[in-house]
């Protein structure tokens, strides 16, 4: 596909702002509402912020690394950018949709590219009941937290919590405990991508829990439901030979 109208966005870091100035000087910078591709400059945090900003518009996003982390980013190079964009490969992602009901009965909805995580917010460990598709699978998990990760997010927080790395096309989600105390030997589960995961917070007054979906945090939750948002698509561009499938595969052979 030929991308002719490029919109540039960048994080506030000096390195990203310097790149923004150079690219705007070298190439025409289209208004985001008129662009047919967005180029994001920064790290993975900026990429996630850009995805949320343009989510639902089905406009491709091409990231270039001007930050500390760059798993979702391409290598920065200001030379011949239009040609790189036109040769880039598209990976289409679906985010997770979180519906978190707090202890006052208020429902809060959010989308997450990487994971939805539940985290204890006091000195007391959390107690959480886990159901899949309406059937209780774990009556009581004693833990610091638990998360549901997409394949795209399986190498992020999920991996740090000793969860599995998932190929993009695996059709699975990772359900991973964070510092599980009881049952000690439960290491999580692999779920089909169409699974609906329900979390019920037990003893919620004594053991408050927060739920996080990317930039949205909901405190003092009572129940949280997580499912793949099949109605929302996010096209991300990667340089040929360096798409997300390849990056996730390489992650399994690195230190």
How would you characterize the overall build of this protein?
This protein has 255 residues and is α+β, with helices and mostly antiparallel strands. The chain folds into 2 domains: 6-94 and 233-251, Probable inorganic polyphosphate/atp-NAD kinase, domain 1 (Rossmann fold, 3-Layer(aba) Sandwich), CATH 3.40.50.10330; 96-228, Sandwich (Tumour Suppressor Smad4), CATH 2.60.200.30. The protein has 5 helices and 17 strands. It has helices at residues 14-26, 44-54, 81-87, 157-160, 244-251; strands at 6-10, 37-42, 61-65, 89-93, 96-102, 107-112, 115-120, 126-132, 135-143, 145-149, 172-178, 189-192, 197-202, 209-213, 216-218, 221-228, 234-238. It has a 6-stranded antiparallel beta sheet, with no helix packed on it. A 6-stranded antiparallel beta sheet has the order 12-11-10-7-14-15, with no helix packed on it. Strands 1-2-3-17-4 form a 5-stranded mixed beta sheet, sandwiched between helices. It is elongated, with a radius of gyration of 20 Å. The two termini are 36 Å apart. The model has no long low-confidence stretch (mean pLDDT 93).
């Amino acid at each position: 596909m030929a991308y002719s109208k490029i919109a540039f966005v960048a994080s506030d870091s000096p390195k990203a702002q310097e790149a923004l100035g150079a690219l705007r000087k070298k190439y025409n910078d289209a208004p985001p509402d008129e662009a047919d591709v967005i180029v994001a400059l920064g790290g993975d945090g900026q990429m996630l912020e850009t995805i949320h900003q343009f989510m639902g518009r089905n406009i491709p996003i091409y990231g270039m690394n001007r930050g500390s982390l760059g798993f979702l980013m391409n290598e920065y190079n200001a030379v011949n950018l239009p040609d790189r964009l036109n040769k880039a490969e598209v990976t289409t992602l679906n985010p997770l949709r979180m519906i978190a009901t707090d202890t006052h009965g208020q429902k809060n909805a959010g989308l997450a590219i990487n994971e939805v995580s539940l985290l204890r917010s006091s000195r007391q460990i959390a107690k959480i009941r886990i159901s899949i598709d309406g059937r209780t699978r774990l009556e009581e998990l004693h833990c610091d937290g638990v998360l549901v990760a997409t394949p795209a997010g399986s190498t992020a927080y999920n991996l740090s919590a000793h969860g599995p790395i998932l190929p993009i096309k695996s059709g699975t989600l990772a359900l991973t405990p964070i510092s599980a105390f009881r049952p000690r030997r439960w290491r999580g589960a692999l779920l089909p991508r169409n699974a609906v995961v329900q979390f019920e917070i037990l003893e919620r007054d004594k053991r408050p829990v927060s739920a996080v979906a990317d930039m949205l945090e909901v405190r003092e939750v009572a129940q949280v439901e997580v499912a793949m948002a099949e109605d929302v698509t996010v096209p991300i561009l990667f340089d040929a030979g360096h798409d997300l499938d390849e990056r996730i595969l390489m992650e399994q052979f690195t230190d």
